[in-house]
Structures are given as structure tokens and as C-alpha cells.
Request: fold
Amino acid sequence: MTAGPSPPTPVFPIGRPLRWLVALSSRRPALTVTAWLAVAVVMLAWAFVALRFETSMLRLLSPTARYVTLYEQYSRNFGELDDVMIIVESGDVRRSVAFADRLVGALRRGPVRFHRLTYRVDPGHVAGQRLLYLTLDELTSLQRTLIDQRDFIERFAARPGLTTLLAGIRQRIDAGILLYLFDLGLDDATGRQGLAVLGDLVGQLQAVADGHDGYHSPWAGFWGLGRDRDEGLFLSDDKRLLFVFADPLSGGGGFAADRDAVEEIRRRIAELHIEFPDVSAGVTGGPALSTDEMTSAFRDSGIATIVAAVLTLAVLMLAFRQVVKPLVMLVVLATSVIVSIGVITLTVGHLTIFSVMFISMVVGLGIDYGIYVLYRYEEERVGRDPRDAVAVAAERSGPGIVLGALSGAVTFYVLMLTDFRGIREFGFVAGTALLIALLAMLTLFPAALVLVDASRLGRRDRRPIPNGESRLLRFASERRGVVLTLAVVTAVLAAVTAQDVGFDYNLMNLQAPGTESVRWEKRIIESGTRSVFGALDTAGSIAELRAKAAAFRRLPSVADVDSVTMLIPDDQPAKIDLLSALRPLVSGLRVGPRRPAARRGGDRPRDRDARTPPGVPRGAGARRGRRGYAATRGRRRRTACDAGAPRCRRGGAPLHRIRRARVRRLR
Reply:
């Protein structure tokens, strides 16, 4: 039995215009292919220049929604509210601070500029009012210390330096020891306070000698304030996490700007890990989450597109038993995708986390139109010229192809009626991409088929298409009752199980679980501190603000509430009165110039002269006088020892031994 022409097929009214369109495209196939490729190149170049990628979740929401307009208003009034958050984790707060200090310095010297880089409260914001942030007890302790240590304060102010400081600390320790020895019934906190200052001072000297950073002033112990040295740092509840907030100058500049800032931070962190192997650090926060989200979406979309193309090509080669024409079909589809990206650039101007997935979707849906054209073309190709075959195929199968494409496009265009801007843009992008894929399969693909069949590749690749009905379709038509019963049972089971499907409001579950920003965000949650996601509200007065903050704290879903009241000191009238009483105690103090440190390698003659007591000859020609002064001083010491002075007894003075024992006990 020989194959003949296909039996007459009913022609729909739209069939003749489609036949004319395909005939026009295949009349000069080389020109059609060249025109499509030229348009694709232009669109691709324009997309590289103008296409943006929006990572902000705010861009996915309706611009007219009240919460969106409020957030935009807050951003205009208070600046960018979503910073990049750098997390530094270590068992030692000092190591974390040293790491953060080095990181901030490296970032400030780097190519990316930042509005703000901070890991602690900036004291410059409260300049002139810092004492108001102390408690009343601390201010009272400060007043008592000023009164008790006025002599030392005046001496240190007149001659500031390490020698004067150590002498004052020794005096405080001696006073505490004497109070304890004579048991005057007074508190020995004076000696303990001096030892605390000495311990802090020695610790700082040791840290500098060891090359460690993280300086803190020892004066808090001297004044008896008892302030935590970690106060003002942005720490987690367990003090294992130190937060560094970074606001790039490119904030709000889109995906590329945020990605550059995040990559620069991660590069600097990797460099510091060599010096700080015991410190872990990472980047999270809204911009980092969005950047990782878009990066993973691009990567996954590319992988999905490649896998879909390979699997589709394999299925087509197996079905058609050919290689060239299925490959040409995929090239035509890729050309339509490139043109679609250009059209999206001209109309929408950007892609989002939703719309970027349209490429893999178009590969799965747009390829169907080419399959219909190729199947019909191979049937009509027998006994016909390639141009006549594609024209007949378009006239007879084209109406069904167009109807299917229009149905799919309309389904996506319906999404444009929603308020969610991300879904609305996705509907427009997907629907437009399907229509462009349809146009390419009805113009570019027929022209490419004519060129292929006119070449050696087409003659070598031509194989008969299997003819005959599908066994599955035959079984479905003969066993209609069984098929309908299976369909009803499947639908009932699906309806029952659908009741257990819930809605997940956690935005973290939308993120890729293996990204760095997600891992550190979960680490923040595990540490007991707040999440990077929060709500904002404003008030017209301080009273309204306090009322709203109290109401928010009562909500079970709210972990903590921060407001501007945190920056307003409590008990201001009482503190102002107490500070007014402190003014006379410090008004007469004048800080003298610091003396230069002694040089190593022995004292020079002018240094020895500076230490020579009054009345002793000075200068290079007075060495004999100084030797006489030393001899006189030695005779005085021997005379005192002959008189039985306690400090000259063998083994050291008893008071000196008692002092050393008391120091060890206090430690």
C-alpha cells in the first residue's frame, strides 16, 4: 500500500490568512531567517544595556497598597530602612570586635562606598548629653568619687601620664589596706576599686604588647560606674554574635549594585579569616537575601532551561527519528525567547524573581507549536514542494495551533487583573512570550524547514513518520467507562487530600536553604535575637508612641519593640539637678600638657637634670655635686637604719609584706 495525499481536511476561516502568512515567509526563506536573527541580535544587545533585575520585595507588591505607600514614606523620611547585616560569631567578644574593626576599615578603603558602617552606638549622636544616660546611682557614685579623689584628680590633671596614674592607684590600694588593718568599720571598696583599675590597666598593656586590638578605657572602674565594657555593641542575647550594619551608597540601585556590595563584603571576610581563624562571619539582611534569592533563581532557571532543552530534544529525536529538524526547532524557540526578552525590556524594563522563570516555561509550552507544524509538514511533504507543504500545513493545522496559543496567552494575561504586581508582570511576560513563540513557529520555522529540505542535510535527514493510531488513544475510546471511573476516583482522592494543604506565610521558606544569607538568618533566630523581618509604625507624639509600643509588646507574635524612646534619658529633672551639683567640683580643673615618654637606651643628661631635686646643681659640669647628693642620701638612709627604722629590716618591711599579702587576697 502506497502513501498518497492526505484526505481533504475542513478549512477554518482563519486557515487562509495563516496560509498566506506562511507562504510569504517561505517564499524567500533566507530573508526571513536573516530578519529574525537581526531582530534577535538587536533585542539581545538592548537587553544587555537596559534590562534590570528587581530584587526588592517591595517591587512585587501593589504600588497603591497602603502599607507600600507608608513604607515608601518612611524610607523618604528616615532613609533606607533595610541594611546589609554582617554577622561576626566568636566565643570572645574582644575577638569579634577586633574582627569587625578590621573589616570595617578594609571596607572603607575598598572600591564600594558605604553611607554607614557601624557595629556599636555612635557616641557622637549624644555629644553633650552623655551623662544623662547614666543612672541616678551611677551619677551618685560619680559625685562621691569626685569628692573623695579630688586630690588625685587635680594632680593627674596637672601632670597627666602613666606615672601619675600608677601613683594614684597605689595610694588608693594603700588606703584600702590601712582601713582594713585598723578595722575602722569602713568599707574597703577603695582598695578593691584601685585594684580593679590596675587590673584593667595591666590587661590593656598586655593586650597591646601581644598585638591584640579591642581597647577599652579603664576609667569606668576608677569612677565606680560599673559599666559593661560591651555596652553599646550590637550583640545578640548570648553575646556570641556581633552585628555590623552596612548601608552601601548604591542602596536601592537594583540587583547589580546590591550584588557588588555583598560580594565585596564576602571577599573581605574571606581575607580576614586567615588572620582570625577562630572567628566566623557572614552576610545577611534584606539586600543580601534578595541578592542570593535572585542569584539562585538565575542559576536554577538556567539549569532548568538547559535540562528542558536537552530532554525536549531527546524526545523529539526519538519521536521524529531525525536530528536536524528537531534541532532547528529548538534554535527557532531560542530565537523567540531572545526576542521576548527584548520586548520585555522595552515594555516592563525589568525582571523579578517571578518573571525570570518564564524562559523554562516557554521552552515547555512554545515547543508544542513547532511539534504540530513539523508533524503536519511531514505528512503534507509527500509528493509536494516544501513551500506548498508548509502552506498547506499552516492552512489545515494552523487554526488549532493559534487557538491553543491564544488560550494559553489569555490564561496568563488574566493574571494582570491581580493587585500583586509581581504576579501581574509575570502574567504579561509569560503571555507575550507565548505569542512571540507562536509567531516564530508560523514564520521563522517554516522558512527554516524550506532551507533545510533544500540542502543536503534535509535530504539525508528525511525519514518516514510512523503512520497509525496510538494504542493508548484506541484503548481510551474503546473503554470509555473504565477511563471515566478512574478519572472520578482520582478527582475524589485529590479533593480529600487537598483539605490538608495549608498556606505558609514564612518568607524564609521561599529562599534557597543552602545560601549564606539564609543560613546566617536562621543562626540569628536560633541565638534568640530578632529576625531581619519587622513591622514599622509612626506616632504623632511621645505619649502616642509609648501607648503603641506597649500595645505591640502585648501581642504574642511580637518579640521586641524598638522606638525613639530608647534614646530619651529617664529621670531627666533629677539627673540635671545632680549634674548641676557636680559642676563646682570640676569647674576649676585645668588639664596640663602631657610629658614626652622616656627614651630607651639610657637617660640623656637633660633627663637626669629634670629628675634632680631642687637645690642640687644641674648641668654637664655639676656631676660632682650630684655624686655628693647621692652620698648624702646614702648616709641618711644608713642613719635611719641604725635607728631601727622598720623599713630597713632584713627581708623587707612588715607593712610591705602585709600590703603584698592583702593584694593577693583581694585578687
